[in-house]
């Protein structure tokens, strides 16, 4: 089975503003997608609202995958996200992901914990801000 991974998903969502948001979400996330970030659940609609907000805040960025594992329909990774915001400030976050794929290879569920490495106190909720 061919499946998505975190790098193309985040690149399409956050760092490719010319790609239509709904097309980016459809490409990597199943219709019944759910995500829990730092204990807070969001359905696919809420997740899309979150990404729409981030697209107004994020000017550029990169993803560095440190570890990545796939076992059948299960996926896990540890990655670093560096973001330059539209105000010129930067945020670096380490993210731990446990996920499940839908039969078509898109993410069905992601549960993640974030650890901000660089940024202001106001940036702490960037992982779930809407």
Write a structural description.
By secondary structure, the protein is an alpha+beta fold. The chain contains three helices and six strands; from the N terminus they run ααββαββββ. It has helices spanning 6-14, 21-28, 44-57, and strands at 29-37, 40-43, 58-71, 74-85, 90-101, 107-118. The protein has a six-stranded mixed sheet with strand order 2-1-6-5-4-3. A hairpin with a 4-residue loop joins β4 (74-85) and β5. The longest helix has 14 residues, at 44-57. The chain is globular and about 40 Å long. The model has no long low-confidence stretch (mean pLDDT 93).
Based on helices, strands and strand pairing, what is the structural class? alpha+beta
- Major sheet summary line: 6 strands, mixed
Radius of gyration: 14 Å
Low-confidence stretches: none
Q: In order across it, which strands form the biggest sheet? A: 2-1-6-5-4-3
Number of helices: 3
Order of helices and strands: HHEEHEEEE
Q: Topology, please?
A:
Elements (H helix, E strand, L loop, with lengths): L5 H9 L6 H8 E9 L2 E4 H14 E14 L2 E12 L4 E12 L5 E12 L12
Parallel strand pairs: 1-6
Antiparallel strand pairs: 1-2, 3-4, 4-5, 5-6
